[in-house]
Amino acid sequence: xxxxxxxxxxxxxxxVATIPIEDISEALERPxxxxxxxxxxxxxxxxxxxxxxxxxxxxxxxxxxxxxxRPKLEEYGQCLFVVLRTAQMEDERIALGETHIFVxxxxxxxxxxxxxxAYTEVRKRAESSPHLLRKGPGFVLYSLMDFIVDHFxxxxxxxxxxxxxxxxxxxxxxxTRSAIESIYxxxxxxxLLKRAVSPLIDMGTRFTRIDSPIIPDDTRPYFRDVYDxxxxxxxxxxxxxxxxxxxxxxxxxxxxxxxxxxxxxxAAWAAILAVPTMIAGIYGMNFEFMPELHWQHGYLLAMGGxxxxxxxxxxxxxxxxxx
Length: 323
What we know:
A 7-stranded mixed sheet has the order 2-1-3-7-6-5-4, with helices on both faces. It has helices spanning about 25-30, 45-55, 60-65, 120-125, 130-135, 135-150, 150-170, 175-195, 200-210, 220-285, 300-320, and strands at about 5-10, 15-20, 35-40, 70-75, 80-90, 95-105, 105-115. The chain contains 11 helices and 7 strands. Among the domains are: about 1-130, Beta Polymerase, domain 2 (2-Layer Sandwich); about 255-320, Magnesium transport protein CorA, transmembrane region (Methane Monooxygenase Hydroxylase, Chain G, domain 1, Up-down Bundle). By secondary structure, it is of the alpha+beta class. Helix 7 (about 150-170) runs antiparallel to helix 8 and helix 7 packs parallel to helix 10.
């Protein structure tokens, strides 16, 4: 079953009553009153009931039911329909949710899906400022957007800390596989956050220019503040994505350097071992007539030659930095 978090009637910036969904129509008949409804993962019957009370558009209601929409702002007659992505850190990973907001001249309906923080704090803060809440549903829309956007800041800070730890791990010789997996996980989280934030830039621009009685002129500066926050977050995310890419390239470069060092050592030892192998191979051939084959000092000369040549090669490779 869907859940009604709250359904309240407001007048002159103050809460005047808490009502059931079926009484919304009667409350709207009284001049000067408007309704704020909060829903959490409502089922279709509940959302259809809310639709009937506010005469919401079918397409917007279908979007709110499916809950798989990209952030957007749409106008349906005298109603604004806003879709926002929400984000939370769960077990050091980003979990996304959605919030769908219907805003009319005399109502606000918020529909939460997935991983989201309850908007009880937003309602309490708005109710504690009657002079601002008097601005109506447009101010409530700003408050919800501001709350959602502000929750991106601690996530960005957490991702910055993860990047700092990754950089320490990359340059401290930690296991290669673990570091690369962590880099890709961070890149994926940044991409998720980017998808949630970047559409808000265009949305913020539209809110500052939209010609709708739902957004009064004295409310537009508040939306510009949200827009500024979105720009800051988006720029920080872009910077982090570039740093993560650079960190990955640095890690791969270090791996390549390490592999080259190993290859040089193997090549040097192979060259050193090739000398005694060659000499032993020559004297191991089964021929009767060979130089110094029956000389009593031939063994010592062969062993000394092997040792001397191997030592000379070792010194040369060591001096060249291969060993």
